[in-house]
Design a protein that fits this description.
Layout (H helix, E strand, L loop, with lengths): L1 H11 L14 H14 L5 E4 L6 H11 L7 E5 L5 H9 E2 L12 E2 L1 H4 L4 E5 L6 H13 L1 E2 L8 E2 L3 E6 L3 H7 L4 H7 L2 E4 L10 H16 L5 E2 L1 H9 L5 H15 L4 E2 L11 E3 L4 E3 L1 H20 L2 H8 L3 H11 L8
Parallel strand pairs: 1-8, 1-9, 2-5, 5-8, 10-11
Antiparallel strand pairs: 3-4, 6-7, 12-13
Helix pairs in contact: 2-3, 6-8, 9-11, 12-13, 13-14
């Protein structure tokens, strides 16, 4: 069966990522990449921590390719994307006739398919408690038991897990098993958000321009200083994934051979003001929305009391908000 899996892997193997594909120039990222390269050589479980869009799967694939397991499968599993009712059978497999609709003869799970290779458990914090127990046993015993079977199957798999959730807090709340956390957290690697290594933005921008030139058959040569400053000013809550999306949009809009500021369109909960070159934080967005709603209600109700009724608040609250925002009732009528 191992030879069959290896043959199947060689025929279906996707293009793999190496550390050469991770774009950076900052000292912070250099240190993290060097750490990841070092631990790639071993077999210990790795826990990748970081916000969504920071490149955790990129690191997982690069670690696999740097390891002695590179010629065997790399199996990526998004634990949040698979329904709880299916996740257990997907990970551990099932025996013949275990449930209605089960494949005749049963089916091996993803842990078995990853034999001699690496399994990447993304969004590990999302797995339900009963699967946490079974996963802990797999990590402790290096064996899996298919649903509906008593026999255990030995496996040789390296586990790389990833999450953007605060597992320590989840352990305290009882949402995540403490013993499983310790088993996963053998080698933690923290991948920083893009806002903490903005010096990498220029090289990432150059990389994305080359990438999308090839994809769209374009010949964009670069980006204007003003447009780059625009990108450097932003805090990138969606991290590198968001930057890539913004650059893809800009490349689609670009009609000349250089990207200008008007082609950089950022849709985010944080609103960018191109005139002041500053950001409005969440409280500013709330204030602007509140002010606009107040003006509309006053315009419709023609009085503070009727505006209060429209908004579902007290008359006193409307008066206070009018003073706060400098709104004159006569100007709204």
């Amino acid at each position: 069966m191992s030879e069959v899996r290896r043959l199947a892997h060689s025929l279906t193997r996707p293009v793999m990522i190496t550390f050469e594909d991770i774009i950076y120039k900052s000292k912070k990222m250099k240190e993290i990449v060097e750490l990841a390269k070092t631990v790639s050589k071993g077999d210990s479980t790795i826990l990748l921590r970081g916000e969504s869009g920071t490149g955790k799967e990129l690191f997982a694939r690069a670690i696999h390719m740097e390891s002695e397991r590179r010629d065997y499968p790399f199996v990526a599993v998004n634990c949040a994307a698979i329904p709880d009712t299916l996740l257990e059978s997907e990970l551990f497999g099932y025996a013949d006739g275990t449930f209605t609709g089960a494949r005749k003869g049963g089916r091996p799970g993803l842990f078995e398919f990853a034999h001699h290779g690496t399994i990447f458990l993304d969004e590990i914090a999302e797995i339900p408690p009963h699967i946490q127990v079974k996963l802990l046993r797999v990590l402790q015993e290096n064996s899996v038991r298919r649903l509906g079977e008593m026999e255990e199957i030995r496996i040789d798999v390296r586990v790389i897990a990833a999450t953007n959730r605060p597992l320590e807090e989840m352990v305290v709340r009882g949402d995540f098993r403490q013993d499983l956390f310790y088993r996963l957290n053998v080698i933690p690697i923290f991948i920083p958000p893009l806002r903490e290594h903005k010096e990498d933005i220029p090289v990432l921008v150059d990389y994305f321009i080359k990438k999308f030139n090839n994809k769209f058959n374009k010949s964009v040569q670069g980006i204007t200083p003003a447009a780059l400053e625009y990108l450097l000013s932003y805090d990138w809550p969606g991290n590198i994934r968001e930057l890539e999306n913004v650059m893809e949009r800009a490349m689609n809009l670009c009609k000349k051979n250089i990207i200008s500021e008007k082609e950089i369109i950022i849709n985010s909960p944080t609103v960018f003001s191109s005139s002041s070159k500053r950001y409005f934080q969440l409280k500013d967005i709330v204030n602007e929305t509140e002010k606009e709603a107040l003006i509309r209600a006053l315009s419709q109700g023609k009085s503070a009391r009727k505006a209060a009724k429209i908004l579902g608040v007290s008359h006193t609250t409307v008066i206070k908000k009018m003073k706060k925002y400098g709104i004159n009732l006569n100007e709204q009528n």
